[in-house]
Amino acid sequence: MIFLLIILTIVIFSFISQIFSKHNKIFIFISIFFVLFFYYFLAHLHNRDEFNSFKYRDTVYYNRLVKSFKEYNLHIAKNPNPIPQNQNARQLYVEAVTKNHALFWLWDCSYYKGYIYLYFGVTPVLLFYLPFNLITNLFLPDQIVILLLTSLIFLISLLIIRKISTIFLHLKIPLWIQILTIFLIGISDFTIFFLVQPHIYEVSIISAGFLLLFGVYLFLQYCCSINIQKNRYYIFFIGLVVSLSVGCRPHYILFIPFFFVSILYIEYSKKTDIKQITKYIFFFIIPCILYGSIIAIYNYLRFDSIFEFGWKYQLNDIPIYTNILPLKDLFLGLKYHIFQIPLINNTLPIFSSVKAIGHSLGNEKAIGLIFVFPLSIFLLLLPKIIKNFLIDKNKKILVFLFLSIFIFITNLFVVCMAGMSLRYNFEYMYITTILSIFIFYLIYVKSKIRIKFILKILFITFFIFSLYINFSILLNDNYIIFNPAEYRTKIILFLM
Fold first, then answer.
1. Positions of E strands within 318-458
2. Per-domain residue ranges for the chain?
3. DSSP 8-state secondary structure symbol assigned to residue 334
4. Model confidence pLDDT, tens digit, residues 271-325
């Protein structure tokens, strides 16, 4: 009930802001600050000891790798009794874990020729953990990294929406809708679940999402720029951040050619001369080649193959590499990720996620996109919107739409095949929230007064439902345990 009151208070606050719309920047700043404070509160409240500790801990995998790098090693552990590589290392590992739970930290690491390697991408270490250690001689907790990236993703999402709606199309959106949008993005893109469950899985996923989203924002900046010198910098950093994202999630390599083609299309539409286009190609490809070479060498030194990230040698209870993913996993994933109805409980808060059944690789918690973020139904209007922009020949918006759709479809396909877990929802949610809100803005501005009234009611209803169901999952799925008396004590400690 307390969360419902908080949501209604936000709605009332948005209406009040409309009355004093002359001071819109103040209300927007307050809303952004509240979301960022909520992020900090969640991260600090449930991980207080880890959050404030910068000591080395074996449970932080990336700090294991930092320590190994400083000792000129690439492995994070060496097996004192090496398992012959031609034997079933996975089965021997599972048997060992059942006898000694202390070995569980090896889960999902990669075993090759007597050494334990980190399967997860190396980019977060190079960007965050290693520089922090070299500068301070301390070890960065996962909680701090996730809090930083969650906050940046939230801010970049707002900047992207502002760029495409007000700068590209000059849409005039009421202040109260802008205020609700800030909270909707901040709470509904699934980053809040990473804040209360920060592990290496979440660090890898959210790092990739941040880098790709930053690449999208730089692309929009490039589209707005007419300065050739600035465009070179934009294109260089687009190539760099998208390449870095591959070092977090290997399938993000699929986005490199899409950005490349998009840049060529924009320049072709400007009728740029071939010489200048060639220079742009050079600025885009150089960071891709450089960081791609780093990843290739890193892979070769560990697994004797530039294309092997460690997937083939993962230690877990499922033979992922040899398991041919059946087509049914894709359809099952679509069912759970898009259409799965939440579980309805007898007590408040009434919603919770559902335990998935039947997937070949993983069956954890799942909930459908159309229920956790019902504003996504506006995505069904994409064909009509694309058609209208084709008629208007608005190439910048068209490229943005196709880029967003490609990110959504690619990540949705990958997570459907990868298994059922709420952490995977983020992979397509961060672009879904942006795209859905943009479409709503567009329809709202172009609608007549009566339709606008219906859209207002719909937006408020979806807003209340989205925030409530996200808070419900946080509580009912044991991400957080709400005990008012305990929380009063924690809040006091938090403020001290």
1. 343-344, 351-352, 354-355, 365-366
2. 2-53+141-495, 61-136
3. H
4. 888 999 999 999 999 999 999 999 999 999 999 999 888 887 877 666 665 655 6
